[in-house]
Design a protein that fits this description.
Jelly Rolls; EC 1.13.11.54; nickel; iron; four-stranded antiparallel beta sheet; single chain; about 180 residues; five-stranded antiparallel beta sheet
Length: about 180
């Protein structure tokens, strides 16, 4: 079975690239992530260009657009500015889908009680964050990741920084959380 490491975060102001685990650590299971709409697959990133499993996921989910981003100081224009922007708490009107091809990174998502959960992403991890969930992204101390970005239709890059609670997609997401608990 695929494993993904996730945990509740501390509120330390230290470097965002550190793990920020509570002491003692409070792990978060895949099942708990699914309850907030976060889904995960472990794939073979070495064959991403011709991976039938990736193609099956793309077909089933309707991910028709794909590109690859390399996040490293010498590869990403305006690197420092982009990292700050990625780490601002925000939401999107569409699902966010990322597949780590090389390197490592973190996605932080808010749970139903507004607590931060940190998800450690490594090579081969594919994750979907639902539209309307507050989240952010950062590199870890390795300062490098190469990721595939997947979209249904044309890509939409617009992020809406918190607060964005009045957006219909945010209200729909919160409603889905309440419905799942009922």
């Amino acid at each position: 079975m695929a494993t993904l490491e996730a945990w509740y975060m501390d509120d330390s102001p230290e470097d965002q690239r550190l793990p920020h685990k509570l002491n003692p650590n409070q792990p978060v299971s895949l099942e708990d992530l699914q309850k907030i709409g976060v889904f995960y697959w472990k794939l073979n990133a070495d064959i991403y260009e011709n991976d039938p499993e990736l193609q099956k996921i793309r077909d089933e989910m309707g991910y028709s657009y794909m590109d690859i981003i390399t996040i490293r100081k010498d590869k990403l224009p305006n690197y420092e500015e982009k990292l700050k922007m990625f780490f601002e708490e925000h939401l999107h009107l569409d699902d966010e889908v990322r597949y780590i091809l090389e390197g490592t990174a973190y996605f932080d998502v808010r749970d139903k009680d507004d607590r931060w959960i940190r998800i450690a992403m490594t090579k081969g991890d594919l994750i979907t964050l639902p539209a309307g969930i507050y989240h952010r992204f950062t590199l870890d101390e390795n300062n490098y990741t190469k990721a595939m970005r997947l979209f249904v239709g044309e890509p939409v890059w617009k992020a809406y920084n918190r607060p964005a609670d009045d957006f219909e997609i945010r209200q729909n997401y919160l409603h889905s959380l309440r419905s799942a608990q009922a």
